[in-house]
Specification:
By secondary structure, the protein is of the alpha/beta class. Helix content is 39%, strand content 13%. The protein has 14 helices and 14 strands.
Amino acid sequence: MDEVTIKKEIFAKVKEYCDLFLNKKIEYVPVSGKKFDEKEIIAIVDAALDCWWTEGEVTNKFEKKFCRFLGVKHTIVVNSGSSANLLALKTLTSQKLKDRRLKDGDEVITVAAGFPTTINPIIQCNCIPVFCDVDLPTYNINIEQLKKAVSKKTKAIFLPHTLGNPFNVEEVVKLCKKHNLWLIEDNCDSLGSKYNNQLTGTFGDLSTHSFYPAHHITMGEGGAVCTSNNELAKIARSVRDWGRDCWCQTGQDNSCRKRFEWKLGNLPYGYDHKYIYSEIGYNLKNTDLNVAIGLAQMEKLNDFIEIRKRNFALLKDKLSKFQNYFILPEATENSDPSWFGFLITLKDNCPFTRTDLLKYLNENKIGTRLLFGGNITKQPYFIENKIDYRVVDHLKNTDFIMNNTFWIGVYPGITDKMINYTVSIFDKFIEKIK
């Protein structure tokens, strides 16, 4: 029996297993999750049978496919979205960027109403985070504050498209060009979102992506940095791969054809190029086993995006009757979001608390999440580590969100039945407090 025949038998058994044991009925309404079938499991098994396991041909295929989807030149796969954020910031500290590189004490503008690993790389690179407030109901950066935030020390802007809703890209890009600032888009929650009919993740010098199970596609654990700047791509790959100067792919040698003919730093002539390091780097690579899942998921991405949009629209329509109590989310002007979740903010005059509502939803098996760190400057690690930061004017809306905002799910595993059930629970709760 040959290899192809044996593989076909294995894959048939995998499908049988999935059909029998993995299609379980969901007894609750998740806030997020992975959507998959036997194709992802077969992809993992196929990659495992190749016995390569580290980064290899599967990763190469994914990177090319992701580049085509976004319309960028370079995709650099990493082991998480958080690592992607670290890699993007660290790339901008390279000596190769000369006067434009980020140095100790330089400022990076962002928002406090976000996820910690958008902000932590700024701190880890010895730069100063400068926090702007956000607008309601878009939950994205206030442009007037952003304009005020720029100082002589400002070198970069690092912003998320909040929960899939693009920030005002036109104004942000204009400001970056005016002041010669780097722009990093945190696109981890926004794969498939568009601004002026162009995909987010393509406007900045660098963009970051997450493939954690909660996100638009998954690898289990995984992420990516994208860019169309050849120099930034080369630096990013070096930083991701221990900081090495060599650009050989895993398992390859002597791509430069002069492996033992280099003279760099104070090393002796002929020192093996595979062990010459030109950047301060890490090992942030992923494995073909993980990436195989993502490659299978790419075939479903467009459908996933449309389902997210549809689920958001259904929730918006059905929950609009509660606008006396809630601020409902609005897409940024000129944008078409691929929503990560449905944000709800309790109004000032609300006769109940967020905690009351979240407990009731939880008791009725409806998943909820807060808007990540709320006001990140109030988090214990910020206070205990005495993080140095600057605030522009105020963070009034950020504090309001910290106290009054949460979100519910729109991911592709949520059905019409789940949406109708969710709305019925909101109905019951509102009736109880009237």
